[in-house]
Amino acid sequence: MKSRFSTAELNTLRRLRAGFLDGSAGLSDYWRSESDLALYDATFAQRIGWKWDAVLRELQLRQWQPASEHVLDWGCGTGIASRAFLAAFPNTRSVQLHDRSQEARRFASARLHETFPSVTADLSRPDATDKTVLLSHVLNELPAHALQQLIALLRNAAAVVWVESGTHTTSRLLSEARATLLGTGFEPVAPCPHSSPCPMLDPKNARHWCHHFAQPPPAAFQDARWEQFRRELGIDLRSLPYSFVVLQRPTPSPQAQHPEAERPEATPFRHRLIGKPREFKGHDKVLTCQEEGLTEWMLQKRDAPELLSEMRAPSGVPSYQLSTQNGKILSGTAFSPPEAPRWD
Ligand SMILES: C[S@@+](CC[C@H](N)C(=O)[O-])C[C@H]1O[C@@H](n2cnc3c(N)ncnc32)[C@H](O)[C@@H]1O
Questions:
Q1: What is the tens place of the pLDDT at every residue in 20-38?
Q2: Which residue of 48, 50, 168, 262 is most buried, as measured by CB atoms within 10 A?
């Protein structure tokens, strides 16, 4: 790997980024060559991979397991989403790689083969039936009719893991997609602590959007190429906002099979932190999502200093069990992984 980007490479990165930002990327295939894809894979895709790592870590902390050993990576680009997924869930046996660009499909397949030689790459027509479908950074490239077709395809999936950029626009589109998919029988796994309608879509919450922040690996801050990337493209490497939703088809519960079994209690971690706390002198304003909707709380440092530090830099899943009164958080506990279910 060279230590610096050439002028031609920087121009390619700028061209790609301009298309992602101004919405023109959806109009036509923008992958001009294999070197475009390699450059994307080493830069933008790496940042996307760090967001996937955060999502997949949350799924692992939640002890979620995919019901299927087969994956469809739809709009795969260079295939960063499926490679991140395979690293987290190595039982996966096949990955179907779909993209409107043939060059991208070939590139993703070659990279998949290099990294996971025993996993089958399938480049045939996309079929989501009983698969875990991965979607990553596709929403702002899809006109309404293409999004409708995609949603129709997802109806047969076993699960959907969908990660987007964390902007107001894409996050709200993702909330709408969640609503449609819940209407077809999916249930939410994360980040939603409830299966009620997403409160972001309530007109009174129009200024909000569901998003979180991932952490880049510390090595990125000591790397000359990332420093050049940051400077030349004007990208703040420290800020890695993302939105995501994970949905699955309900599996028959042990209770349905054994009606006498005791139903496990609903999660007590019913408050999901949205974005970052807003810091003021002596207190923070904290926005959380819960079954009843969105609430902005006041969290005073003197009431819960440790909770305040944890919410400013969550160490795990940013879901909390909070004790609140009159719009204030009095105390709280961060999510801890569930114990094995008790179906005795
Ligand atoms: C921003 S890239 C994201 C690639 C990859 N999922 C990632 O996260 O790095 C969006 C990808 O979606 C593909 N794409 C755009 N419109 C599409 C469509 N209608 N059908 C299939 N793929 C599409 C593009 O070719 C591109 O590879």
A1: 998 888 889 999 999 999 9
A2: 48
Does 104 sit in the ligand 1 pocket, CB within 6 Å?
A: yes
Q: What CATH code would you report for 7-250?
A: 3.40.50.150
Verify whether ligand 1 is closer than 6 Å to residue 9 (CB atom).
Answer: no
Extents of the domains making up the chain:
7-250, 271-334
Burial of 200-230, coded b for 16+ CB within 10 Å and e otherwise, reads beeeebeebbbbbbbebeeebeeeeebeebb
- pLDDT single digits (tens) 48-89: 999 999 999 999 999 999 999 999 999 999 999 999 999 999
Q: Provide the residue type at 334 as one letter.
A: A
Residue that is written with structure tokens 């589109």 in the block = 173
Q: What is the pTM of this model?
A: 0.94
26 touches ligand 1 (CB under 6 Å): yes
146 touches ligand 1 (CB under 6 Å): yes
